[in-house]
Specification:
The protein contains 23 helices and 17 strands. It has 587 residues and is an alpha/beta fold. The chain has a six-stranded parallel sheet, sandwiched between helices. Strands 13-12-14-15-17-16 form a six-stranded parallel sheet, with helices on both faces. Strands 8-7-9-10-11 form a five-stranded parallel sheet, with no helix packed on it. It is globular. Bound molecules: thiamine diphosphate.
């Protein structure tokens, strides 16, 4: 049975009509009418996460998996503010997070009536739109409510977060309605004027050095990959992509951050492009940003649907407001040069330089860097074991009946959620095994939601979901361990270096007592007690030999609970390993 509140019924019916089926619910009484109505309808897949900060990131994890809008729903007051970090992350990663907050009637805000604050518009510029629907007492109220809800649900597809605030007056608990109302839906159509691209195609065809930089993208950009392949026909393109860009081709370059560290001024200028094309979100490499700012292209196009205009490299000339796929599809149709020319010396130089760079190896001291390498190698081996045949067998035993190709493809793919700070940087020093998707809260680079996001992804996923995270980030996000059905397919590798190790690597910051206590926040905490109390299996390692020994068991599919491997490293060795590696790359 549904709530009798008409604005709640309109909301739930419109979510259904817009196909938003995943809802992360946090407890409360003001939002009980919403909870009751979502949870009563089998269309919705409801999750319960108590801590709203975790709930927000949990929802982002689901969005990473299904690549569709996902709703979070909370009660009034500070509950809503706890969504803040995930809202900011969604804004900068352009993820369609739909925040639904229950509220008191506007007359009662600020009247010492308990659990209220000015909720409408509370996220300011961090949401694409914020609406407050009315309580429905007339036909006009209902039209108003419907119009605002449609507006918000269409806007989140741009994509990005939106906020819907829903005042609900007492009585709250009349759940006597049997069916949802018929509702009007509206949608937005955005045709692209293909001829607008003609002049861009001409410039592209004339350019001799085209650098394509792919920032953070959602998983599975298969269509984008094949379109890029078609577009790159005249032999003058280099593609740079980090692991967060997901896209992998034999000739794309991932180790550019390390490569740039080896260049002198002359080389920095010789490798510069004349046309730069960027798509996707953030790039981790600071060196890339500095290099392109100092050695700018003549033209820089940024392609993105959301309308944001990031001038990351300070020389942007065109913002092309559409999806990379739509842009490339139109672009390929207009391209005249359909035959690849000879590979230019510029491209050859890029490829030679990139291939000539070694990855870090085990001759370095046991450290965050070598642990990261062992982790990637370990899950790569696991990937081979998890061959298509064994995947299909496993899926068949779980779900009788036909398997969709998508399901099999998704189960074959392995997923890594990587924490900010050192883990995301160290991961980039190694090549990524094929069929691994990498996610990170890189929109605002916060350290608070890695585990929660991984958990949100894992709850609906068939395959293993790996997490590589530092200790401060891990302890920050402990609340998610209280999730009622903590996913058994999570494998967490926690690198415990006793604080924020990244700050030890910053030249100039030093190693004073103040830095140790307050900047790095050094500690002696171990995860063991927390982990075992939450029913997750615990492993630990402090040396190469121990790590090799334990990785096999930890990676394996067996076992009916999640597993955490805590690896202890020493900060002096972490610094030594990093310095030794980068020194070894210098000519
Ligand atoms: C919410 C938030 N608070 C503070 C920071 C600043 N910060 C950046 S990196 C970092 C240290 C992270 O330490 P850890 O997760 O242990 O990773 P490590 O660098 O030690 O590998 C901190 C505190 C941040 N990014 N986000």
């Amino acid at each position: 049975m549904y709530s009798s509140k008409k604005n709640v019924l309109e909301t739930v019916a419109l979510f259904k009509a817009h196909g938003i089926s995943e809802v992360v619910l946090s407890p409360g009484s003001r939002n009980a009418p919403l909870i009751q109505s979502f949870a009563s309808d089998p269309f919705f897949n409801c999750h319960s996460v108590v801590d709203e900060r975790s709930a927000g990131f949990f929802a982002l994890g689901i969005i990473n998996r299904i690549q569709k809008p996902v709703a979070v729903c909370c009660t009034s007051g500070t509950a809503l503010l706890n969504y803040g970090p995930a809202v900011a992350e969604a804004f900068y990663q352009e993820l369609p997070l739909v925040v639904v907050s229950a509220d008191r009637a506007p007359a009662w805000i600020g009247q010492m009536d308990g659990q209220t604050l000015p909720q409408a518009g509370v996220f300011g510029k961090l949401v694409l739109t914020s609406v407050q629907v009315p309580e429905v007492h007339s036909d006009e109220d209902r039209w108003h409510c419907n119009r605002l809800l449609n507006e918000a649900l269409n806007t989140c597809k741009r994509p990005g977060p939106v906020h819907i605030n829903i005042p609900i007056s007492e009585p709250l608990f009349d759940f006597s309605v049997e069916t949802l109302p018929e509702v009007r839906t509206t949608s937005v159509v955005m045709p692209m004027a293909i001829n607008d691209l003609q002049s861009l195609v001409e410039r592209y065809d004339q350019a001799e050095r085209v650098l394509i930089v792919i920032g953070q993208l959602p998983a599975n950009p298969l269509k984008l990959t094949s379109l890029l392949e078609k577009c790159r026909l005249h032999g003058s393109e280099v593609v740079l992509v980090e692991h967060l860009g997901q896209y992998v081709m034999p000739d794309s370059i991932g180790n550019f951050d390390a490569l740039i560290s080896t260049w002198n001024e002359q080389q920095a200028s010789a490798f510069a492009p004349d046309l730069l094309i960027t798509m996707g979100g953030h790039v981790v490499s600071k060196r890339l940003k500095r290099w392109l700012r100092e050695n700018p292209p003549k033209t820089h196009w940024h392609i993105g649907l959301s309308g944001q205009m990031p001038d990351t490299y300070q020389h942007a000339t065109h913002f092309i407001q559409t999806t990379p796929e739509a842009f490339l599809e139109a672009f390929v149709k207009l391209q005249k040069k359909q035959v690849a020319g000879p590979v230019s010396p510029w491209i050859l130089n890029w490829n030679l330089a990139s291939r000539g760079l070694p990855e870090p190896d085990r001759s370095l001291p046991f450290s965050d860097i070598t642990v990261t390498g062992a982790f990637l190698k370990g899950i790569g081996k696991f990937a081979q074991k998890n061959s298509p045949n064994s995947t299909e067998k496993r899926l068949n035993t779980r779900n009788s009946g036909e398997l969709s190709t998508e399901k099999v493809q998704n189960a074959r793919k392995m997923v890594v959620f990587v924490g900010n700070s050192s883990p995301v940087r160290n991961l980039q020093l190694y090549q990524k095994p094929k069929d691994v998707s990498v996610f990170c809260n890189r929109g605002t680079s916060g350290i608070e939601g890695t585990l929660s996001a991984a958990c949100g992804y894992a709850v609906g996923s068939e395959g293993l979901v790996f997490v590589l995270v530092g200790d401060l980030s891990f302890f920050y996000d402990l609340n998610i361990l209280t999730h009622q059905s903590f996913p058994t397919n999570l494998r967490i590798l926690l690198i415990n270096n006793g604080g924020g190790s990244i700050f030890r690597q910053l030249p100039g910051l030093g190693n004073s007592e103040i830095v140790t206590n307050y900047v790095s926040a050094s500690h002696n905490l171990k995860a063991k007690g927390f982990i075992e109390a939450s029913g997750v299996r615990y492993f630990q390692a402090s040396s190469d030999a121990e790590l090799d020994d334990v990785l096999k068991t930890w990676c394996s599919l067996e076992g009916n609970s999640a597993a955490l491997l805590e690896v202890f490293t020493d900060n002096a060795l972490n610094l030594e390993a990093s310095q030794t590696y980068f020194r070894s790359l210098q000519p």
